[in-house]
């Protein structure tokens, strides 16, 4: 691999027992042609998951000093640094998080400039257990965040699930996260192509906001033909993400900026915000479209938050 090319990273999230290690093994089996490194994060001194990685890999790093999403003395950053000092760099890195990890915080670490220069987070993959995902969404805030922040959602353990129930769960997950590619499977059997990045599910128009999801998680669509002041937009989004950290899980969409022909891609998970140029509007009218995902979000609140940044 070229020395300066960022190392592709696959981040696996999902509640305890959903099937993350099972999926990881399946992905590794399909990646035998590559030099793969795995980072396992687990609570407790003994990292059982590391011993359950059965596929052939170069190295597995076991992080057992608490959850990597919240430890201040961050082991993950340390290991990412150590990997760069290896004689031969990996072609791919897989990170399996703990079942209660705050996915947004980990995703945010990959936007730190020094990390971003050497690693590219290509896909955040959330595994959910079809047998209990609805209960978990109700009980555990982090599960809602994991689903909201994912690029790919794997509905696992579907063997005994009647097809209509599977379709209903997929629809439910789609309503929570309209950006994700969602697929149903059993025993983590997913073609690796399904977890590789793709633009296919970045919707021009977001999910129907009238469709209500249970579990208090909803999406709010914001659309405006008025352009934004870029600095002000960054200011209001960062401020409100900090204030509503337990309520606002994700933002994604395109915005128009005053006196600028380019459209900008806005992405936010947890405490990280990225706004980057994404080409010209070309034939489409420059209408800003942002989708907010979170807990009991109200359209009027989102309008009020964004209003000061509109020009
Ligand atoms: N019935 C059934 N069991 C499954 C399926 N996928 C995984 N399992 C089993 O579910 C259990 C948990 O799977 P893991 O892959 O270890 O789940 P995990 O998310 O890594 O679990 P933690 O590390 O504890 O968070 C294991 O016993 C798996 O063999 C499936 O599709 N159906």
TrEMBL record:
Taxonomic classification: Bacteria, Pseudomonadati, Bacteroidota, Chitinophagia, Chitinophagales
InterPro entries per the UniProt record, alphabetical: CobW-likC_sf, CobW-like_C, CobW/HypB/UreG_nucleotide-bd, P-loop_NTPase, Zinc-reg_GTPase_activator
Name of the molecule in the record: GTP-binding protein
Alphabetic keyword roster: Chaperone, Hydrolase, Nucleotide-binding
Function according to Swiss-Prot or TrEMBL: Zinc chaperone that directly transfers zinc cofactor to target proteins, thereby activating them. Zinc is transferred from the CXCC motif in the GTPase domain to the zinc binding site in target proteins in a process requiring GTP hydrolysis.
Domain CobW C-terminal positions: 217-310
Protein family: Belongs to the SIMIBI class G3E GTPase family. ZNG1 subfamily.
Listed Pfam families: cobW, CobW_C
Known catalytic reactions: GTP + H2O = GDP + phosphate + H(+)
SMART domains per the UniProt record, alphabetical: CobW_C (SM00833)
